[in-house]
């Protein structure tokens, strides 16, 4: 592998454009899935236990995607743009969580639950500052501009954040040994044991809790009302006293905070992060948001679950190399045949 | 208002604002920059770098204070940074003069410059060609394509594989690569016919990634991450650039240098790029090109007038992809080695930013943007790890300050009485395809 890379570098060396460090080895996420697979597909690939294990893994992965997807869907709902940098906000959330966890566990020692809780809060807080700043710097000045402009600045922001973290924290992957170990063994046969680990339970429970909280926030508070008003008609909402800038800012802050939760979960689940995780996770979460119907919170969650399940089953039963192709193809198919998603409202075209 | 506020109050307000900015900066960088993680003997270790954080915060504080007091004035943020640059609309001759000057420089470049500059020229011209090709799709037809690099890859791999498996020559493969890439443009264009705006962008991005992932994993056929090496170099219409008896130098009675091939490659890509430009300019005057621009401005109106948006979109995708494919096969023969690593999303983003920063639809703007960006990358070669950071920041900065690009000017291809240039800021670009 090293030889290949050296060769590639030598031959491409004359190109002035630095290719993003596309890793030729498998990304960390896939390694984990290899580990989770344990038994070759041909041994117990058809067994019920194997299926249930994949179901559990898929739901866990889907929860993480769902949390990121909410950020996309809220922003799209309110200002009608794809926040391309959201995947990188997730990546930054994971990094802040990692560093905060290391510092806090060095300070507090053994109290894991406390440390995790404070880590979560710190990561949410500091990541939302990133979300706020990105909106303020790159999107707000262009809100009146033509549609391409904020997408371009979003791509610029995404590149900036990736390289910022790469320079500040180094390009190498950051491993974190498993913090929450153990779990329940649901079913056991001679060759295969269905394992439901504590971390998977934590991820799903936390996601469900946040979803309930968010639904309440959108349905029942003044803030949620302001958000829904902005979504429908910004000018009218402003006339009725809704502070648009503030509402949009808060939307970004909330999206970033959820991305930070997803970042921490990702870190705990996979145990390894690098500065490039945001790109793929971002695209898949966006796919999830589109699949569920962009602008709809339950849709984002449902889409996330579906994408997580499809990706896991695809890796388990077909080929792990092409699992990204599966996710991208779903995106294309959904947009072509079901442009408003599963739970979204159809877009009415006004002339 | 300026006089209504005393200096004391003004300073106080500026100090407060700078303080807030500094505080936010601290929140942003305290963890990511202040605490660096490194892999040590027992797990991750943290290095504290508070000096960096302190200097970062100080820079933001002082910078914001100075900006507020000296540049911006007390009220609002006068974003007048670019206002001193004349708008292209006010100087319609500028584009023509620049174009002629650039062309003259481009043609004469190999006569007075060394190998390094000519090599750089080849690279810049490749991106100019890619930019012009993408300009057809994004600038003229208004279809935001984030996966343009896929066609570049198709072209490059077409030539590499045809040469590898069948031993076909470059001159045969060049048009073939263009045709194949054009077909791929149609194949990928079909599914996205109904999509618009941001959705179209994301799906094209997904297609670009799919093609890259397939190239990466189809090991038996494409060599996977190893890529394809030993791609034949182009010949001077059959005469190879070699030292031997029947080589280029011997045939024309010259002394052999490796510069011959480089200069030949330079002129080859120059001609290819100029062909792209000429075809684009001609097409704009044809019904097809006018349909593209009509579709860009307003798709519904365009459809109501009886223009088939299916044909219009597919032809834009196909022709744009064709030029991308030709540039790709040129890239393959120039490098002699290709791998999926050369066709990542970053490339698409780079080409797109060249088109957008140049001013959508402006040919000369794209050329200037390509020179500035690729030249800039080369100038900052020393700062290897920082240049992508700067690239991202610049993209944001320029878009915020000049969202219409550097040369935002449109000239209608058909006029009733007199030719009037339209500033692109008057055209509702992108509203039409939403």
Shape of chain A: globular
What percent of residues of chain B are in strands?
under 5%
Structural class of chain A: mainly alpha
Ends distance of chain A: 56 Å
Strand/helix succession of chain A? HHHHHHHEEEHHHHEHHH
Figure out the total of helices of chain B.
16
**Biggest beta-sheet profile of chain A:** 2 strands, antiparallel
Estimate the helix proportion of chain B, in percent: 55-70%
> Quick check: average pLDDT of chain B?
82
CATH top level of the largest domain in chain B?
A: Mainly Alpha
Order of strands in the sheet with most strands of chain A: 1-4
CATH architecture of the largest domain in chain B: Orthogonal Bundle
Radius of gyration of chain A: 21 Å
Helix proportion of chain A: over 70%
CATH third-tier fold name of chain A: ABC transporter involved in vitamin B12 uptake, BtuC
How many strands appear in the DSSP assignment of chain B?
6
Strand content of chain A: under 5%
**CATH hierarchy: architecture of chain A:** Orthogonal Bundle
For the record, the count of structural domains of chain B works out to 2
Note down, in words, how this protein is organized:
- The complex is a heterodimer of chains A (351) and B (434).
- Chain A has a single domain (58-330), classed as Orthogonal Bundle (ABC transporter involved in vitamin B12 uptake, BtuC).
- Chain A has 14 helices and four strands.
- Chain A has helices at residues 2-12, 28-37, 41-44, 48-79, 86-108, 112-139, 148-169, 198-220, 222-232, 234-239, 244-270, 277-292, 297-317, 323-337, and strands spanning 174-175, 183-188, 193-197, 272-273.
- Chain A has a two-stranded antiparallel ribbon with strand order 1-4. Chain A has a two-stranded antiparallel sheet with strand order 2-3.
- In chain A, strand 2 (183-188) and strand 3 form a beta hairpin.
- By secondary structure, chain B is mainly α.
- Residues 428-434 of chain B have low confidence and may be disordered.
- In chain B, a hairpin with a 2-residue loop joins strand 1 (35-40) and strand 2 (43-48).
- In chain B, the strands form three sheets. Chain B has a two-stranded antiparallel sheet. In chain B, strands 3-4 form a two-stranded antiparallel ribbon.
- The radius of gyration of chain B is 25 Å and the shape is globular.
- At the A-B interface, helix 1, helix 5, helix 6, helix 7 and strand 1 of A face helix 1, strand 1, strand 2, helix 4 and helix 7 of B.
